[in-house]
C-alpha cells in the first residue's frame, strides 16, 4: 500500500516538516517502509508505477495527514465522570467521587460498556495510542485490553496498585502488597500471552497509583518487578501541593527521589503531572531518561501550580501530553494542545502563586506555541514511551490520522488566499475538532472510526 498525502509531523522538537504530496509506502508489518518526496529524482516514476498497480491511495485536497495523537495519561474508568466532579481539591475528589466510581468496575458488564464507549471516543478524537490507568480489578482491566485489541487502538494498560489502608478506602484497594504485586504480574502475563496480541499493540504497565496510595512493600515489590520484566511504569508525581507535601512528610524527600529509591524511575517510566519538581528532580528525571506526562487541563483544576513545560523541554526532559481523563474534562488531545499553550502563556505572565519571582527567573521564559504543543502530542509521546510512533519516518509504525479541513461540521476555516504552510497546522491545532478527524490508521491498518 502507498499513500500520497500532504500533511505535517514534528520529528524533533522545534522542527515541523511540511509534507507535500509525499508518497508513503506502508509495509505488511505496519511500519513505514519508505517515503518519497517530490524533490526525489525518481518520485515521478515511483508515483506512476504505484498508480498503475492500483496500490496508490491519494488524500483529497484539503485533507492533511498528521501522526495519530499519543495520549500519555488517561484514567479509563473515570470516563463516566468526564466533565463533572471538578469542584474540590484532589484529595477530596479522590474520596468523594473517584474511588466510588472506580470501585464499580468490579462489575464486569459495566466495565465493558464504559470502556467500549471510551475507546470509541478516543479514536474519534484521533488518539491512536493511549497510556491507561485502569482499576485494581483483574477482570475489568483485562477487558480494557480486549477492547483495545478489538477496536485497534494501540494501548499501554496498567492494573492500578493501591494498598495503603491509610489513604485508600476498604471498599476499593488491594488487600495486601501481594495482591498489588501479583495482580500486576497476572495482568502482565495476560497481555503478553493474549492470542490477539501477536504484534504487541497492547503493552502492560506497572502502575502504582501514586506514592500515598501504596505501602513501602508494594513500592519495593513493583520496583523489583519493573527490573525483572522491563515493562513500562506509570504513576503520579508531585501533582498537587497536598500530594507533593505528603511524600515529603512520609520520606523527607520528593516523589522523584522516592520513586528512584524504589527502582521505579527508568527509561520507560512516565510521571503524570510533575508540577512540583525541583530543579534537582528535573535533572534526575532527565538523567534516568524518564518522561513527564503534561496534563494542562487537569492541572488547572487539581494541581495548584503550572508545569514549566518550556523549561523541561529546554532541559531535554522527555515530555508528552495527557488528557488525564477525568481530572481534565476533555478526551480531545487538540483541546489539551490548546490548554498547554494557554497555560504556558499564563505562566509567562507570572500567574503561578506557588513560584516566586526568583523561581520564575530560574526557568526563564515559559511561552510555547503550536509547534511544541503538536510535538508533545505526537513525537514527544513516542519518545516518552520508547516506541517508534508519533512521526513519519521509515521504520516507524504507521499510526496516523487525517484532518479534513473541509468537513461541513468541522471547525477549521482555511482561506486559500491566506493560509499555506505551517499556518495550516497552526489553524488545525488551534481550531480543529472531532468532525474534522476523518480517519485513522494504527500499525498500517485503517480503522473504521465510530
Ligand atoms: N492522584 C492519584 N490518583 C489520581 C487520579 O486518579 N487522578 C489524578 N489527576 N491524580 C491522582
Ligand atoms: Fe491522573
TrEMBL record:
Binds 1 zinc ion per subunit. Transmembrane segments: none annotated. Keywords: Hydrolase, Metal-binding, Zinc. Pathway: Purine metabolism; guanine degradation; xanthine from guanine: step 1/1. Signal peptide: none annotated. Residues 64-445 form the Amidohydrolase-related domain. It catalyses: guanine + H2O + H(+) = xanthine + NH4(+). Belongs to the metallo-dependent hydrolases superfamily. ATZ/TRZ family. This is Guanine deaminase.
Amino acid at each position: 500500500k502507498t499513500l500520497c498525502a500532504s500533511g505535517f509531523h514534528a520529528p524533533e522538537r522545534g522542527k515541523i516538516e511540511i509534507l507535500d504530496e509525499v508518497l508513503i509506502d506502508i509495509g505488511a508489518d505496519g511500519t513505514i517502509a519508505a517515503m518519497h518526496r517530490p524533490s526525489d529524482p525518481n518520485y515521478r516514476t515511483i508515483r506512476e508505477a504505484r498508480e498503475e498497480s492500483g496500490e496508490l491511495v491519494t488524500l483529497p485536497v484539503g485533507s492533511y495527514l498528521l501522526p495519530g495523537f499519543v495520549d500519555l495519561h488517561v484514567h479509563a474508568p473515570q470516563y463516566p465522570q468526564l466533565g463533572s466532579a471538578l469542584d474540590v481539591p484532589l484529595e477530596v475528589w479522590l474520596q468523594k467521587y473517584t474511588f466510588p466510581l472506580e470501585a464499580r468496575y468490579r462489575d464486569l458488564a459495566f466495565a465493558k460498556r464504559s470502556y467500549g464507549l471510551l475507546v470509541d471516543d478516543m479514536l474519534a478524537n484521533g488518539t491512536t495510542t493511549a497510556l491507561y490507568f485502569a482499576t485494581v480489578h483483574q477482570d475489568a482491566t483485562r477487558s480494557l485490553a480486549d477492547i483495545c485489541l478489538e477496536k485497534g487502538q494501540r494501548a499501554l494498560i496498567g492494573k492500578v496498585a493501591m494498598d495503603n489502608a491509610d489513604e485508600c478506602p476498604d471498599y476499593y484497594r488491594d488487600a495486601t502488597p501481594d495482591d498489588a504485586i501479583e495482580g500486576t504480574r497476572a495482568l502482565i502475563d495476560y497481555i503478553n500471552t493474549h492470542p490477539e496480541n501477536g504484534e504487541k499493540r497492547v503493552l502492560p504497565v506497572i502502575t502504582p497509583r501514586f506514592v500515598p496510595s501504596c505501602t513501602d512493600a508494594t513500592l519495593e515489590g513493583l520496583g523489583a518487578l519493573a527490573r525483572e520484566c522491563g515493562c513500562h511504569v506509570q504513576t503520579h508525581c508531585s501533582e498537587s501541593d497536598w500530594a507533593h507535601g505528603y511524600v515529603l512528610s512520609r520520606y523527607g524527600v520528593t516523589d522523584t527521589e522516592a520513586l528512584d529509591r524504589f527502582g521505579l524511575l527508568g527509561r520507560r517510566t512516565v510521571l503524570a503531572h510533575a508540577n512540583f519538581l525541583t530543579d534537582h528532580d528535573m535533572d534526575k528525571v532527565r538523567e534516568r531518561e524518564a518522561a513527564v506526562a503534561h496534563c494542562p487541563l487537569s492541572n488547572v483544576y487539581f494541581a495548584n501550580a503550572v508545569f514549566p513545560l518550556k523549561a523541561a523541554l529546554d532541559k531535554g526532559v522527555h515530555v508528552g501530553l495527557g488528557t488525564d481523563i477525568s481530572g481534565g474534562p476533555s478526551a480531545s488531545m487538540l483541546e489539551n494542545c490548546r490548554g498547554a499553550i494557554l497555560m504556558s502563556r499564563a505562566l509567562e505572565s507570572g500567574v503561578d502563586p506557588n513560584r516566586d519571582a526568583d523561581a520564575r527567573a530560574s526557568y526563564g521564559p515559559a511561552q510555547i506555541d503550536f509547534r511544541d504543543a503538536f510535538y508533545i502530542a505526537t513525537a514527544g509521546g513516542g519518545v516518552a514511551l520508547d516506541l517508534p510512533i508519533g512521526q513519519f519516518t521509515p521504520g516507524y509504525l504507521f499510526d496516523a490520522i487525517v484532518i479534513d479541513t473541509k468537513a461541513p461540521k468541522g471547525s477549521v476555516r482555511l482561506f486559500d488566499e491566506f493560509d499555506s504552510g505551517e499556518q495550516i497546522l497552526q489553524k488545525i491545532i488551534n481550531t480543529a475538532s472531532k468532525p474534522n478527524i476523518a480517519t485513522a490508521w494504527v500499525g498500517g491498518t485503517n480503522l473504521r472510526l465510530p
